Amino acid sequence: MGLSLDQADARRLAMAVTFWQAAVTFTVALAAWGLSGSGAARSALLGGGISVAASLVMALLGFRRRSDADAYRALRGFFAGEAAKIATVIVLFTMVLRTLKVSPLAMFAGYLSTFIVHWVALANALPTLGAPRAREVMISGAGARE
Q1: pTM of the entire structure?
Q2: Which of 31, 46, 83, 113 is deepest in the core (most CB within 10 A)?
Q3: How many domains, in total, are found in the chain?
Q4: CA distances from 74 to 56, 59, 64, 79 (A)
C-alpha cells in the first residue's frame, strides 16, 4: 500500500510548487521592501527567484513526458533534474553575489522562504510517515491486553 503518483500528477505538483514558491517570493520581497527598502526587496526577489528557477529546471527535466513508461528512465530523469537544479542554484548564486550589490540577509531570506512551500506540499501530498495504520493499531492493541 505505497504512495502512487503518476508522471502527469507529479509534473502538475512540481509546477504548482514552483508557482507557490514565486508567490511566497513576492510576499517576502514586499515585506523586505516595507522593512528595509527597495534594495532589500530586490535582494529577496533575487534569492527567491534563484529557488524558483531551480525548481522550474527540476520540474521540466525531472518530470519530462515519456519517462513514465520505464521506471529506470523516470529515475534517470529525476536524478538529471535534481543535478541540474543544484547546478542552477550554484551558478545563479555565484553570478548574483559576484556581479550585484545585494543584501545577503534579505537574499537568503527570500531563498529559504521558498522551502516552506516544499514542506507544505510534501506534508499535503504524502501520507503521514511513521504513523501506524488503523489495522496495525487494532492488532497491537488487542495483543497488549492478553
Answers
A1: 0.78
A2: 46
A3: 1
A4: 17, 12, 8, 9
